[in-house]
């Protein structure tokens, strides 16, 4: 599933029309019919539907939707909320078909008239403005949006809610607040950005018959279960523990042994053949009581935290993860620097190691083996010296710029986790729920990702699947055994058993 900006969507339309001869009016007909068929799944024949129609392609879609639903016997009022002069081109063509089909078109003259209709509506369909909106809404659209948002009706947006920018990074806007959005042809970037996604409600992408082989790739896609299953690492009948990778996890402290323990056990649950835990000796008993299958590399310590990096020999390992529960003292800084310079295998940097990385980020460019960073927005903001709000508003841009600049994979965690490769290509994982918003969830994810990398031919696919397995486990556990309130990180580790059984089947 592709994710596009407004400009990329315009280019798709242009290429579709130029390369195949598809008429824009036909594409509009296809879009309106696709939305109508999707909307029918949510409509009852007794429900009263108000369709708010503007100018441009979105308005043209609205005329097709209104005509199609009326043809199918639904109770529909079509309201044109802009002046006749603004309805041009393909939209005007479909407006004329609507009128010639014998249906009544209501035109907004006084908002009081529309207000009465909206109050009696069961469903309000927003087909006012499309992807070209920038900034605050103007009248009369602004007032119509405010009236619609006040109603108890089920609110549906066509392509994207009126007023919501298609792209990331825009803060000042007014918008229709949809309960459901039928997105046309491709997912718009703003459906995945924290401050704009709330306006979409639930959503579905509707196919309108664009020539997919001719369309330029936006290098931004949603990772889906079908693709994940195809590339999930399998088990050869003749394999042994060494076949599935030797992992090293580095971190922990006497006062914080849980993080490294959960990462290690998650790696084992996710298929790593052998896992070694490098941690202060005073933390080993606590960690070993939870992870009996791991071996240990005791590190020199002072007051329960890592003292130096001299005892960390990384030559025997196929992948290394560092940072979980490690602490933020100067010795941790030395350890991160040592591992960046010496690990000749994939290196995953998380948690406290990300904090230390800010002063060492230049070292990343010299690595010839894959480097993976797994920050949440706060950690990433600290790393790139930006505000958290800036990262949340423009997660695609910041993670892409950083990954390309330093040659790393960035897993920017959130409700929509963005996985960016060094070449700037991006995947989005939408699995999971609010049950993951608890300490330790990220430690579990790091362990899963480390194990996936040891077993996969592609780092990108390993990261995509690791994030999905993590999220699917939360979904599965909160469906039956747990709530989003009581779910713990340790529950995720144990729940991986069922996830692997069901996801791979």
TrEMBL record:
CDD domains, per database record: YXKO-related
Quote the EC number: 4.2.1.136, 5.1.99.6
Cofactor notes: Binds 1 potassium ion per subunit.
Q: What is this protein called?
A: Bifunctional NAD(P)H-hydrate repair enzyme
Named cofactor requirement(s): K(+); Mg(2+)
- Family named by the database record: In the C-terminal section; belongs to the NnrD/CARKD family. Belongs to the NnrE/AIBP family.
> Where on this chain does AMP bind?
413-417, 442
Its function?
Answer: Catalyzes the dehydration of the S-form of NAD(P)HX at the expense of ADP, which is converted to AMP. Together with NAD(P)HX epimerase, which catalyzes the epimerization of the S- and R-forms, the enzyme allows the repair of both epimers of NAD(P)HX, a damaged form of NAD(P)H that is a result of enzymatic or heat-dependent hydration. Bifunctional enzyme that catalyzes the epimerization of the S- and R-forms of NAD(P)HX and the dehydration of the S-form of NAD(P)HX at the expense of ADP, which is converted to AMP. This allows the repair of both epimers of NAD(P)HX, a damaged form of NAD(P)H that is a result of enzymatic or heat-dependent hydration.
Task: Please verify whether the record's keywords include NADP.
Answer: yes
Q: Which residue range or ranges hold the YjeF N-terminal domain? A: 9-216
InterPro entries from the UniProt entry = Carbohydrate_kinase_pred_CS, CARKD, Nnr, Ribokinase-like, YjeF_N_dom, YjeF_N_dom_sf
Give the catalysed reaction(s), semicolon-separated. Answer: (6R)-NADPHX = (6S)-NADPHX; (6S)-NADHX + ADP = AMP + phosphate + NADH + H(+); (6R)-NADHX = (6S)-NADHX; (6S)-NADPHX + ADP = AMP + phosphate + NADPH + H(+)
Signal peptide positions are: none
Q: Oligomeric state and partners?
A: Homotetramer.
Q: Which residues bind K(+)?
A: 58, 126, 162
Lineage at the top is:
Bacteria, Bacillati, Bacillota, Bacilli, Bacillales
Taxonomy, superkingdom: Bacteria
Q: Does the keyword Lyase apply?
A: yes
Boundaries of each YjeF C-terminal domain copy? 224-503
Please list every transmembrane segment annotated in the UniProt record, as residue ranges: none
Q: Which UniProt keywords apply?
A: ATP-binding, Isomerase, Lyase, Metal-binding, Multifunctional enzyme, NAD, NADP, Nucleotide-binding, Potassium
- Coiled-coil ranges (or none): none
Residues that bind (6S)-NADPHX = 57-61, 130-136, 159, 325, 376, 443
